[in-house]
Specification:
By secondary structure, the protein is α+β, with helices and mostly antiparallel strands. The chain is built from two helices and five strands. The chain has helices at about 5-10, 55-75, and strands spanning about 15-20, 25-30, 35-40, 80-85, 100-105. It has a five-stranded antiparallel β-sheet with strand order 1-2-3-5-4, with helices on one face. Strand 2 (about 25-30) and strand 3 (about 35-40) form a beta hairpin. The longest helix has 17 residues, at about 55-75. The structure holds adenosine monophosphate (AMP).
Length: about 110
């Protein structure tokens, strides 16, 4: 499968890593939308949030543990936002489940 984030997960395409373990990789977004902008992905391919099921929910929970760990390590004390875009109208451009961890500026609500 020709998937950009699978290639990042297996090291075929280099990334600036913030965290990695057996199941998850976190790397800095190439086009940051905030002073801290990290993407967290499962190494195993999942298309989007729409495809999460009982077989994959464990890795999603694990991603949120990693987010909490990074927030502590990177001292994101003022707060942070976690976003996953699912589908075209939501702005998903890479068809491999990913969570944006954004911090270092104020975020509006509701999002645009
Ligand atoms: P989304 O639009 O929610 O699908 O997010 C995809 C994100 O991937 C965007 O924020 C891009 O800037 C980012 N991105 C695309 N290619 C790379 C790459 N090679 N390394 C890091 N981030 C990337």
């Amino acid at each position: 499968m020709d998937c950009l984030f699978c290639k990042i997960a297996n090291g075929e395409i280099p990334s600036n890593k913030a965290y990695e373990d057996e199941d998850v990789i976190a790397f800095y977004d190439l086009n940051p939308q905030a002073p801290t902008h990290i993407l967290l992905i499962p190494k195993k391919h999942i298309g989007s949030a729409r495809d999460i099921d009982a077989s994959s929910s464990k890795v999603v929970a694990h991603i949120f543990e990693v987010i909490a760990k990074l927030a502590t390590e990177l001292r994101l004390e003022d707060g942070f936002r976690v976003v996953t875009n699912c589908g075209e109208s939501a702005g998903q451009s890479v068809q491999h489940l990913h969570f944006h961890l954004l911090s270092g500026r104020a975020f509006s609500w509701p999002p645009g």
